[in-house]
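Researcher: Go.
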Amino acid sequence: MITENDTDSTQQRIVWLKQNPWYCIKPFNTVLIKRNRQNQIITTPCCHWDDLTHNEFGVDLDHLFSDVKNDIRNQVTNSNCSRCQKQELTYENSERIRDSLGNLQGFDQQDKFYININFSNFCNLACRSCDSAASSTFAKLMNIKAYDELTQDISENSAWWDQIKSYIQQALDRYRWVDITVTGGEAMIQPGFDKLLDYLNTLKQHNRITLSFNTNLTTVNARLLEHCSRFRSIRLGASIDSVDENFHYVRWPAKFDKILTNLDKILEIPNLDLEINLVPSLNNIFYIDDIVEFWQQWTAKNNCPDLKFTIVYLSQPESLKVETIPVQYRQALLARCKSALNNSFLNNPVRSVTRKFFNDLCRYLESDQIMQGPTHWHKFLWNTASYDNRSNCFMKEYNSRLWEILDSDHRSIYTTALKIVQNTS
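Model: Structure:
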């Protein structure tokens, strides 16, 4: 185990974690409740867990994930942890590393427990990096009916709602602090979110609870604003993947101006811990210098010098990953990434892991390494054409920086695909 003296810097902790891939704090301090794609309610220690049928209904917090905990205690990497391992081959921004960085002194020395609740896939956006199981609007846009049942809120299942309440009560009984995270879909429009606020009001222990959620900020829940000051803190992860017109393209049909208006509203929360989450993909990566410059100016204007700016690694679909970019376009992207790295915004130590991500990406772009072959690139062009047609937002206008450098063959693949989907829609 790493000692207190070894934790002087983030980089030292990252090195230790990469040298010890078996270590993960999540099974010891976290439970995630969500529906899987088969409409089964499951429990896992994290959102990257490979076993998407795992269910320990009725097991108390102390005995959750006991087999995984035993593996970790014996310094064995659990077989369900492959997604983080794969990410760490190129980047150091895996969920395991991100969440274990501040928890290297021991499994049994935790004073906070995290309860993550994914109430449903009910969402008002169809983000390009999303899918039908995670967004009801994406499913509607793509005319996919298979996941209609995933819009049913978990809190409507009385047995599981009782289980969630039991987890919360157990955590309050066993730990000093409790962090309750709500995800979706869009967290702020989940019926279970309001139901959760009502239940927490009955407990009257807000001063021990951090309420956390990720949001697309297209709306601000009025009841959250009403109750927010009662909580120990409000930790809000705002998914803002780009700026201006490219933002509309990436997070269709959201408008960037509306997001900024709502961002001003949530800044009024007195106990706010704000984090901006960015999912790099082929749809927004050519705007990364503009994105970083925007947040540089925004933090200065709003006196938020230590704003967290976090990279959320895209695990699926493979075709959208930045690594899919063909070799002939790497130099153009490298220039954008280096411009972002030269921005003083990324020099703040609070954003050191994000800076490391872009350093790693630059090294990849400068190398001969090919992580994603031409099959994924062609799939990206075809899928982009299909989505562009459905949303009526086209690469040539909204992701123009990528379009402008495409060679004639790749433009032809896209335009051919676009004609086919237009003729069949």
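Model: The beta strands are 30-35, 41-44, 112-118, 177-183, 209-215, 233-239, 272-278, 308-311.
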